[in-house]
Design a protein that fits this description.
The complex is a heterodimer of chains A (164) and B (457). Chain A has 164 residues and is α+β, with helices and mostly antiparallel strands. Chain A contains two helices and eleven strands. Chain A has a five-stranded mixed barrel with strand order 5-7-8-10-9. The chains are: A alpha+beta (164), B mainly alpha (457).
Amino acid sequence: MNDPQTTEFGTEPQRPPPPFAGGIRMRTVRWMALALAVGGLVLLHRAARHRELPFVGAADLTPSMQFAPVRARGILDQPARIHRRDGEVNVISFGLRENGEIIHAVAFGETARILARNESLSQPGGSLQITGVVQFSPRYGPQIHIRLPEHVEWTEPVSRELPP
Amino acid sequence: MDGTGVAGVAAVTSAIPFITILGVILAGTVVSAVASCIPGFHVYNLMGFMVLGVLHLEAAGIVLAPEFILSGAVAMIVTFAVVNSLPAILLSAPDESAVFTVLPGQQYLMCGRGWEAVMLTACGSLGAAALLAPAALWLLPAHLPRWHRILQPHAHWVLWVVMVFMLMSEWPRGGTRGPGGWRRLLDGWKSTGAGLLTFAMAGGFGFILLYRAPVPAERAFQNLMPAFVGLFAAPGLLVNILAANRPPRQSIPDRLDVTPAILLTGILGGGLGGGMAAYFPGITGGVGGFLAGHAGAQRDERIFLISQGASKAVYYAGALLLFVVPGVYLTRSGAWLIRGLADPLPRNDVALVTATILVSVTSAFVLTDALARLIVPRLHRLDYRRLSIGALALMVAMVAAMTGGAGLLIMITGTGIGLIPVLHGARRMNCLAVLLLPLACNMSGFGPRIAALLGLV
């Protein structure tokens, strides 16, 4: 590799020897970095996929849980509120009551449009389980942002009795 | 306009003594300035621990006034933006917003002009803050809500365009010698390929972290911290440990070799890029400065360094201003750390944040000069290897304390990805795909579907 090479373009200048890094060949370090990146991503992906998301109640949510993927369950408190922009559903929000406390859930865009078509969300009393990400602000308090319509699951049909 | 500025400060100080607020700002500035000298350190890491401290105090019944939290946090972040040039240039450990200052900065350093490079960058930050202040008090509250309504629906494609530009600017560097053929083609595409690979891996990494980061739920607000330590801090420190280069003896001239025209060009270019980075999610000050540098076709290294300083200051300070501008209340960059603790009160906070930015940038500029004069003469005797080992140990301890074993796994993965561009001569900016790619997909509406395909939701 380090010998001068004669080609049809002439003799190539001799390349400098590959740099060493504390006695380790740089090529080895490069392969180690790549192995670390690929191996780490595979492990992380496995850890993330097999992670059981925690169930939370309204009292558990603190600002340090911002961005935490969580699950929550409860009874639909009131009919879901639907916000429209230019006549199209933009945001849907509803509250889940559990143990006297309410967790607010919200979905945007396409997810909100699909959820708005679900008539069950307009009838309070049904038991729901949601999966989403915690978003916290002092103004609106803690909310769970639902990313996909499949993340709203009905665990029980609408009960005859409305929640207190 | 209803007399926002001075009236706003007066309203705050009528409730809390002015001297107390000033004390908080100066304390935040000094703490951040000292911590920012640590290679690889990012102020958001320290602020994560402070957020936990505030929450513990609240749990114990001690509630801090939002003005304290806001002014202290703004002072720390803005000071970091200025003082961070010291380790980025002198100790070769840039954060994600300073990765571009390293090349010209190191050229200055290797010519014995490290102090000049640091101070040119600091001048950019100071000048940009001076221009940002009137904009914050009069321009942004009056016009930003309207601009935001226009720009917001277009933000997703702007991110895609930025990413395309980043990738297209990775130009093949090798393959210029020898006969044509596969070997020459591969040689030519080596660094470009490394850049593309870094981008793809960082993007996948970002999807995992944004959708299902395996960190404990009660520490989720810091789920990107180990990734950023791994992607940006650790590779630089590792290269320092392995290579252990020492800069030559440095000199400190009586004055900076810069004209007002160069200063203004750098500040305006960097300010434009920093403003763009502050507004659009996922774009950092470094990328903003890079875009502004290309747009302005800056060739002078002094303009480049000044523009990077300006871009960093506007990016960090601007993101905090957008958080408090009435009618906008955008959460960008460091505002995510404050969001859970302090409600952006209209009017008063714009004045408070602007005043804090001005006081802390000026103090940070003075501190940068003092610290640079302290460090620079000793630089050629400094043991970079030991310093980097110590800094790396500190980073590992911080990640472990904040996010546990899962955080360490994230950091190690990030280090592997972050080392690829460093070792193959590609741009480290590609690591920013960790945020850009998932955010652009989310804003375009198909992020959750991709995450579902990856089995993450």
